[in-house]
Amino acid sequence: MGKANILLIGSLKDAASSLAKTAGDFGIGTLQADSVESGVKVLCDKKVDMVFLDTTLELSTYFTALNENKVTVPTVVVGASTPVQNAVKAIRLGAIEYLPTPLEGSLAKTLIERVKPSEDTSGPIHGDPATEQLLTIAKKFASSNATVLLRGESGTGKEVYSNFIHNNSPRKDKPFISVNCAAIPETLLESELFGHEKGAFSGAINARQGKFQQADGGTLLLDEISEMDIALQAKLLRAIQERVIDPVGSTKPVPVDIRLIATTNRNLEDEVREGKFREDLYFRLNVVMLDIPALRERPGDIIPLSQFFADMYGKQNGLENITISKEAEEKLIGCYWKGNVRELENTIHRTVLMMGDENIMQPDHITISPMSQNMASTVSNAPVRTDVERARAAVGAAAGAYANTSGGFEGGISKVSPADMVGRTVSDVEKELILSTLNYCKGNRTHAAGILGISIRTLRNKLKEYKESLEEGELSAQNA
């Protein structure tokens, strides 16, 4: 992870040296600017994780400039403790905190500690063999510069995996920059990614570096890339292929050296077929693709994650050494977790609040959402399986569970009686198995062929045969 920086704007009097020393103790750099104008210029040119702004400066001018330059950075206003109206004004304008002087207590330390870069390279908290296997694969790819595409449901932890890949790469000491393509309006995303020149559009009072330039030498994460407008995808494709960008309003290309990671919770193959995502960009991104399993598919992760969240929120609410009872563990493991890790975190947070002064988590403390309750019974007895075992089990269930002729699948997926197969041809059964496997693999033919134990060429020929058969059937129906 690249070195974090704080920016001090204004004199800040005695607070400046204290803030700089505290930042230094955490290994965080300190940048300084004398005025709002020079401070905004620093924000446009460099990576800054938190700003400390002198209350004697024009606060409204500062926050207006941030909005006009599309800069988002946590800002703490620093000033005398007596004028309460200063604190109220600062918070209303957009400050995250008002820090009174002279500095006392641990508030400044707590604020600065927030921007301390993580040096953890062990990856997501886990206990499931499937997650361990995925992390092993991710670590192998991390050492290269290959573009990585992470797919998975919302809340599975794709950004955590992105951090893991960066922290285990040769670029770990360089910046890790993340941009959420779904959270930024379409009209602003180009400037956010590629930057802009002064006067490039109304309100651009300063030149500004985009995320590509901020990530130079490091890693750029494009979160939810499927939400990007298709017109902007062409410019992104050029940036990825040629490693140059064109800031808005600039006539001179700017070279960049980045490692790109993209995430999506959608099936990009479907998006390509529907014309919502460029096919050439899809192939450019899909150098290395990792599918992040849903939490319900890695039940061994549920209790380690629950304990982590219980400890974190317990500490915030004055509860130490929270223990999860066996009955509570069974309830958590038996949940479907429609919202994945994000839902689990919210559930544990709510549970800690419900516990009051108790430090043993019981089932009646836990409230599960109706969507995740619906499937609890099908998950509670599911055994821990590897990726391939889970895939085969899912395919077996979808295609009639006939694939395993030596005894059927375990964990509640029933074996099929021979009577269920009577009247069906071998070609019909084969077709159902192939299409079910392809559907499970979200259209990924390489993955599907591997599970089926056939070559990609054979799979392609079979799909062509099914398509021709379907078209002939439609033609016959029209002529009838």
Key attributes of the depicted protein:
Rossmann fold; Helicase, Ruva Protein, domain 3; 4 domains; 14 strands; 5-stranded parallel β-sheet; 480 residues; single chain; alpha/beta
Provide an overview of this structure:
- The chain has helices spanning 15-25, 36-45, 59-68, 84-93, 107-113, 129-142, 158-167, 186-194, 211-214, 230-242, 268-273, 279-285, 302-316, 326-333, 340-355, 370-373, 376-379, 387-399, 426-440, 445-452, 456-479; strands at residues 5-9, 29-33, 50-54, 75-80, 97-101, 148-151, 176-180, 219-223, 244-245, 254-255, 259-264, 288-291, 323-324, 360-361.
- The chain is of the alpha/beta class and 480 residues long.
- It folds into four domains: 5-113, 3-Layer(aba) Sandwich (Rossmann fold); 129-291, 3-Layer(aba) Sandwich (Rossmann fold), CATH 3.40.50.300; 296-379, Helicase, Ruva Protein, domain 3; 387-479, no CATH class.
- The protein is globular and about 85 Å long.
- The protein starts with a strand and ends with a helix.
CATH class category name of the largest domain: Alpha Beta
Summarize the amount of helix as a percent range: 40-55%
CATH topology grouping of the largest domain: Rossmann fold
Q: Write down the Rg.
A: 27 Å
User: Which residues sit in consecutive blocks of at least 5 with pLDDT less than 50?
Assistant: 377-419
Q: How is the biggest beta sheet arranged?
A: 5 strands, parallel
